[in-house]
Every structure is written in C-alpha cells, then in structure tokens.
Specification:
The protein has 13 helices and 13 strands. By secondary structure, it is of the alpha/beta class. The protein has two domains: about 180 residues, Glycogen Phosphorylase B (Rossmann fold, 3-Layer(aba) Sandwich), CATH 3.40.50.2000; about 160 residues, Glycogen Phosphorylase B (Rossmann fold, 3-Layer(aba) Sandwich). A seven-stranded parallel sheet has the order 3-2-1-4-5-6-7, with helices on both faces. It has a six-stranded parallel sheet with strand order 10-9-8-11-12-13, sandwiched between helices. Keywords: Transferase.
Length: about 375
C-alpha cells in the first residue's frame, strides 16, 4: 500500500499524527505533501518521503488556490498512491477534488470549521466547495459531533460516510498526571496557543486585567505561543505592566501544565482542542468556551467551567468562580479531568482511522 498524506503543516502533523503515521508505515509506504515548517527530519527519520508543497494557509487568492490544486493533481498523478489522506481546509478541498478526479480513494479529516465558517459571506462558498470535494470521499473524519452534524444537516456529506474521532487524541503517558502544585505564591492560569482573535485572547486579556486589579499577586497569567503582528503592542504592554507573563513559543509545554493551576482556552472554534486534552491529562482544571471542540473536554462544574464564546464577562465569572474554590476542590477538579480524558486516548484515534483505511490489517496496533 502507498499512502499520500496532504497537509498544511509539517510540525503539527508530527506533533499530533506520528502514531498514525507509524501504523501506516507498518502497512506500506507513506509520502507526505506539506510546507516545511518544522519536524521534517523526524518525519523522514521514521520512513516518510516528503514533498515540499507551499500552502497559503490564510489567504483567499483564487489564482494561488488554483495553482495549489494543480500542484496536488500533479503530485497524485506522479505518485499514484493507493489512498490519499488530507488534513485542514485547503488540502481537504483541493487535495480531495484532485484525488476524486484521479479515481483514487481519499479520506478527509475535518479538524475544525475555522474562521471561514464564521464569515457570513465566505461560509456558503466554503460549504459549497466542501460539498463538491467530499462527493466521492470514502470516509470523512470529524473531531467533534457539532461539526459532523452541521455537515450532514447541510448535505455536505452523507452520514454513513462519516466517522467521529475523539480529536487527535491525547497520549496520557506522554502527558501523565502530576500532583497539583502549591498555591502558596498564588494561582497560575495558563493559556497555550496562537495569540489571535479567534482563540479568544481579547476576552482573556480583558478578564486578566480585571482579575489582576482585584487579586494582585494572588493571581498570575502565563501565556505561551506565537502572537500575530496585530497583538505585538498589546502583549508587550500587558507584559510590561505585569498582567501577563509572556513565555513565547515552547516546543515542550509539559512543564507549564505541571506548574499551572488551571488551563484557560476561550476559543471561538476548534476541531478538538489538544491543549485542553493535554492540560486535563496532566490533572489540571479547565476553563473554556461552550462550543464544539472545547465543551467535549469539560464536564461543566466537575472538571472545570464553560463560558460563552466572545464574552468577557462570562469568562471573568468562570475564572472568578475557580478562584473562589478551595485548594482541595481545585485539586479534585483536576483529578476528575484526568479521569474524563482517558476516553480520548491517542490509540483510540489510530484504531478508528486504520479501520477505515484500505489495506487494513488485523495486526495489533502498537502502543
């Protein structure tokens, strides 16, 4: 079997799909079409052959997108894979159409609906493009039931060709439970992610400023991740004033989960948040928005708190509610979260994905 994986991010593919890729390599050859943004050596090291393919992830230039479609068509024609596997919106649409035209089985991963589906002008266009791209897809994988139900309701894909995955899954051995830290020096709230509007950072920063003014050194806000240029000045101002501690991008965030008391992600849309699964696996309570891809990681009131998206007051109330708990209540909330995410194990994702693939084997999945 020869598998062609088409994605828009080599680093993320390695971070969240390497267990699946290892299983595919045990069954055949794996070729990866991707922009080179990190972890290429690791992907090559386990046996993948890489094809550097630039993708304008956020752009909406028709000429560039058509060029990308033609590139995918050429790659598929040259490689002649037995199956094509796609991740993220442009590979899903343009790689999917190219695979369909070549008559090759293809398997699409809808990791989230993204900002395009929040735009009233773009949403109908993208929905129509997805409907065309998925017409002949063998299987469409979803990371949350809300996205799956929306695609079925809009007749983008038939229900019998969908599979619901527990996100990308979380390796609970790699993110083991860690004892809840001392609160002697105050509570540490942690945000991990790209600093951009869609991750809810406007609401987070506003709530942090208000809580800092009320609690002073009893609360701390750690922020890790790249920031978009539009947030450069604000991040610097909040850092200089002591409202947040900006940590930049870190490849290994496990020490941050271990040292924090609560993981906060007020995102507007997610497929299934890896940050929430990783934080809960470490035994940390969660505060996140009541949206598909976030709410699944939380049992509201038991493993953390849900708030309304794009609502500073709702986020502030949830964070203040958490701060009002006793230390033992917070510790037990984290323990309950660890138990909850055991159902989101990494190998459950691998097994369900492999089961839908051609050339599947009865061979036991390696753990």
């Amino acid at each position: 079997m020869k598998y062609l994986i088409i994605t828009n991010h080599s680093y993320m593919l390695w971070q969240f799909r390497r267990e699946l890729i290892t299983e595919l390599l045990a069954r055949g050859e794996v070729v990866v079409s991707t922009p080179f943004v990190g972890r290429e050596k690791e992907l090559s090291g386990i046996g993948c052959r890489l094809i550097k393919t630039e993708v304008d992830r956020r752009g909406a230039n028709p000429a560039k997108d058509y060029a990308l479609f033609r590139k995918y068509r050429r790659i598929i024609g040259a490689e002649k894979p037995d199956a094509v596997i796609t991740y993220s919106i442009k590979p899903n649409i343009y790689g999917g159409i190219a695979a369909a035209q070549a008559g090759i089985p293809y398997f699409v991963n809808v990791q989230g609906l993204g900002s395009a589906f929040s735009n009233r002008l773009l949403a109908p266009l993208v929905t129509g493009m997805y409907r065309h791209a998925l017409k002949k897809a063998d299987t469409v994988f979803f990371e949350n039931s809300g996205n799956l139900e929306r695609f079925v309701e809009k007749r983008v894909v038939a229900a019998d060709r969908t599979v619901l995955l527990p996100g990308a899954g979380v390796d609970t051995d790699f993110y083991p439970y860690r004892e809840y830290p001392s609160e002697e020096n105050g509570l540490r709230f942690l945000f991990v992610g790209r600093i951009m509007k869609e991750k809810g950072v406007n609401e987070l920063f506003a709530a942090a400023e208000k809580l800092k003014s009320e609690y002073g050194d009893k609360v701390h806000f750690d922020v890790a991740g790249f920031f978009e240029d539009a947030y450069s000045d604000r991040v610097k101002k909040l850092s200089d004033s002591g409202v947040i501690t900006y940590l930049g991008f870190l490849e290994d965030v496990r020490p941050l989960y271990e040292s924090c008391h609560c993981v906060v992600l007020p995102s507007y849309h997610e497929g299934m948040s890896n940050v929430l699964l990783e934080g809960a696996s470490t035994g940390r309570p969660l505060i996140t928005t009541d949206i598909p891809g976030c709410r699944e990681a939380v049992i509201d009131g038991k493993t953390g708190f849900l708030c309304r998206p794009a609502d500073t007051a709702s986020l502030y109330d949830a964070m203040k509610k958490f701060a009002a708990m006793t230390g033992d209540e917070r510790r037990k909330t984290g323990l309950a979260g660890r138990e909850h995410v055991l159902d989101f194990g990494k190998y459950a994702v691998v097994e369900k994905t492999i089961a839908a693939m051609p050339g599947k084997s009865t061979e036991r999945i390696r753990r």
